[in-house]
Amino acid sequence: MKSFSEIYEKIKGSDRQRVIAVAAAEDEPVLQAVTKAKELGLCNAVLVGDEEKILSLLSELSLENTFKIIGEKNPAKAARIAANLVREGECDILMKGLVDTKSLLRAVLDKETGLATGNLISHIAAFEVPGYDRMLFVTDAAMNTYPGLKEKVGILTNAVSFVKSLGVETPKVAGICAVEVVNEAMQATVDAAMLSKMNDRGQIKGCIMDGPLALDNALSVEAAEHKGIKSPVAGHADILLMPNIESGNVLYKALTYTTESKSGGVLLGAKAPVVVTSRADSFESKVNSIAMAVLNA
């Protein structure tokens, strides 16, 4: 799949409709997004939160109330209830509403009612960039701040599994750094080289990994050839494995605000996908994020 429209069509062709549990659903943009997702046939939803405020918002927004609502005025408690609905199989996806991310993640990681698996939880963003023949995936731009080698293995494993679900049989992964040579003074280059060797030896499976690669070498065949880089990944990367959250977040926002890209994002590594959108995300991005989670589920 090379576009969000293809993701939508695949979901619509599924024989089972997925259900999202929205934590603290008294949030205008989220209510609009889940309503649109239901209209498109992507999923249904259970709204957990302040029932009076939810109903008031639905009325103000002229949105039809077709959702099951579970009343809970405390956002942190609503997050735990929503996470438990997913844990018990009543819902398939968890989505953040008007609750802070810390409380949502605390609910996800709760051993009794949450969705923890022991695996690393990471964020992946998908971009449909005009002029590109494929979708680009950026990880991790929102969750892990300064991952070491072990964490990067977890981030990579989550990303590869997700991208394979889109029909990319063997994703190409670029370990993005400022330069394309190993420099012991730049730890990211050392990590990228080690990940590449681990991939060569079968310790990291299901993808082709190369690095360190600068961003231009990962995206442009011409740039790679100009620097004499010979690699099946150079110029053909599907997944951009970023060295830290700062570079990942900058790239995410640069693509969002300076291009006509369509985008979406989801948290991976829990028992079910988790949608954590920002208020700065566009309405379209929120719906795309839901679609990514539904496909992953």
From TrEMBL:
The keyword Cell inner membrane does not apply. It comes from the Bacteria. Keywords: Acyltransferase, Transferase. SUPFAM superfamilies: Isocitrate/Isopropylmalate dehydrogenase-like. One of its GO terms (molecular function) is phosphate butyryltransferase activity. It holds the Pfam family PTA_PTB. Residues 6-64, 72-294 form the Phosphate acetyl/butaryl transferase domain. One of its GO terms (biological process) is butyrate metabolic process. Belongs to the phosphate acetyltransferase and butyryltransferase family. NCBIfam families: P_butyryltrans (TIGR02706), PRK05805.1 (NF004472), PRK08190.1 (NF006045). This is Phosphate butyryltransferase. It comes from Proteiniclasticum ruminis.
